[in-house]
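Data availability (excerpt). The following record was deposited with the supplementary files.
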Amino acid sequence: MAHLQSIYTIKQPANPEVYLGALYTGLPSGDWTISCKHYIKEGLSHIEWMVGTLREEKTPKVTGDNPEQDKSLVLDNEEHHLYQQLIGMGQWLVTLGQPDICLAMSSLSRFLCCLGKDI
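Predicted structure:
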């Protein structure tokens, strides 16, 4: 930090607690722990506000489904923007430390450009 301060003007904040949704615990002189629990909690309440009640699914799609062969109508701009927001939130969770959902987010991200309504 001292080296960075010799090059850049850096404020001396108190110990950070939340930054970009991640919860930080620790001391500047010791080890830090980063947790995404805060982001998950806030994200779920935001998603429920956007789309309504959520339900738990075991997989992102039905087994044997082939969405690339789907012929349903394409989402309108508002629905498409909502889908992009949801995928972005999921990708940030992977970055913050939830690698267990990486495959699901990757699968769902394949259809960001042209998602059908029935997928």
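Summary of structural features: Strands lie at 18-19, 22-26, 32-35.
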